[in-house]
Design a protein that fits this description.
Helices cover about 60% and strands about 0% of the residues. It contains twelve helices and no strands.
Length: about 210
């Protein structure tokens, strides 16, 4: 499907309003794609998170769809807004985008959104993604983020979807060992992926309105 700029559907304002707006030294999409928001003492944390909460509540479903129909910056931002506000109506759309993996950099946002939605249906989407992409030992897409999100959901739902991926010499180990730059890295253990997902989701939970 070709990308469609929001201005083509009369929603050109959503890029500046939600994606490139600056509540820190960098545009919002760059902050969401980094881990700076989790850094203790980050000077922009209060302003950034307050505006993100407000926008997640204010953005309409039509505006979110306009962002999801465009490129990675817009999709990443939309996924975060969906996750923060826990818009369950976008579960299927987010799942389709994750499984398609059409663009780079946005998949982490989809995994965050699914982890925040937090149901068995979200775990099934993440499981389907890992079934499709962990055997692809020739590429690095969003396998780490998907595993971290699935591990979090397993813990909250009392399920064991991730067990068959993380067993010794299973698909996760095979994928990591096939990518030379990931081998022996402490950043690519299942526990580390779960930790980062927990940090993002718990931080987002702390943004809840009083």
């Amino acid at each position: 499907m070709p990308f469609q700029h929001p201005k083509e559907t009369g929603y050109g304002h959503v890029i500046e309003r939600y994606v490139t707006r600056k509540d820190s030294d960098h545009p919002r999409y760059l902050e969401l794609g980094s881990r700076r928001v989790l850094r203790p003492g980050w000077p922009h944390a209060e302003r950034f998170t307050r505006h993100l909460i407000d926008d997640a509540a204010a953005i309409t479903d039509v505006e979110l769809e306009a962002l999801l129909a465009y490129e990675w910056r817009s999709r990443l931002t939309a996924a975060w807004l969906i996750g923060v506000d826990q818009r369950t109506s976008f579960r299927e759309r987010i799942g389709d985008l994750l499984l398609a993996s059409e663009v780079c950099y946005s998949g982490g946002g989809y995994c965050f959104a699914l982890a925040r939605l937090g149901t068995h249906a979200d775990a099934e989407i993440l499981t389907a993604y890992l079934d499709r992409y962990l055997p692809r030992t020739d590429l690095r897409y969003d396998q780490p983020e998907a595993l971290g999100a699935l591990l979090r959901l397993d813990a909250h739902l009392g399920t064991q979807h991730a067990d068959r991926f993380t067993e010794p010499d299973g698909l996760w180990d095979q994928w990591v060992q096939a990518l030379a730059h990931l081998q022996d890295s402490p950043d690519y253990t299942p526990a580390e992926q779960r930790r980062w997902t927990d940090l993002h989701c718990d931080f987002a939970s702390g943004w809840a309105r009083p």
